Amino acid sequence: MTSTASLEVAGLAYAYPDGHQALFGVDLTVGQGERVALLGPNGAGKTTLVLHLNGILTGGVGTVAVAGLPVAKRNLAEIRRRVGIVFQDPDDQLFMPTVREDVAFGPAAAGMRGAELEERVRAALDQVGMADFADRPPHHLSFGQRRRVAVATVLAMRPEILVLDEPSSNLDPASRRELADILRSLDVTVLMVTHDLPYALELCPRSVILSEGVIAADGRTQELLCDDKLMRAHRLELPFGFDPRTPLLTRPSR
């Protein structure tokens, strides 16, 4: 972890209008360029935490800052440029007639035009290996290709932090590997919300376990996954036969 923090969450507590308390004072610091997995059972508060990072949810107790900039109403436009969220279903993000138009949407809405906009779109599609599909309708693409385009729509905004919600879900093995290669190549801070523990181990040196609205553990991913008692306590289960102690390079999937 570097000395520069991309994300600082301090004492974040949040209750929904119906009274359900989702977070109970979360403290989390993520360094610039880190890749961190956010793990935890359903209902742990992971989505609630993520939605605070770019101001989709507000009104909680505590503070959230991105590269030193507080997540507050006066800063929301800049915060939403700095924090890009890739949702689990790419169809929630792709709505334009062509891939190019989808990727251009964010920068164009921010006022970018002409050659600068075209270059921004091309660069984002190159990063995810989808430049040859710029003129295709998104709904003609495979699920894995649509997810890569969804990542490109966020990268086109040049974010400080890339937040991914279950990035490996519904991907075939080849698409899963391709996305992993893309994520490893990006020079951004990554926070990955996932139930796919092997994927977390492959991509994220550090993991945080959120359980019942609090941080239950924070450390090296391999060490956390090897702690059987910790895993059972927070309803986290590795796939049958998967040994987190095995070096990644010896696994058939890689």
Automatic annotation (TrEMBL):
Keywords from the UniProt entry: ATP-binding, Cell membrane, Membrane, Nucleotide-binding, Translocase, Transmembrane, Transmembrane helix, Transport
Stated name of the protein: ABC transporter ATP-binding protein
Alphabetized GO MF terms: ATP binding
Keyword Mitochondrion: no
Source organism of the structure: Streptomyces nojiriensis
Membrane topology of this protein: Peripheral membrane protein
Coiled coil segments of this chain: none
Transmembrane segments: 49-72
Lineage: Bacteria, Bacillati, Actinomycetota, Actinomycetes, Kitasatosporales
Localization annotation: Cell membrane
Function: Part of an ABC transporter complex. Responsible for energy coupling to the transport system. Probably part of an ABC transporter complex. Responsible for energy coupling to the transport system.
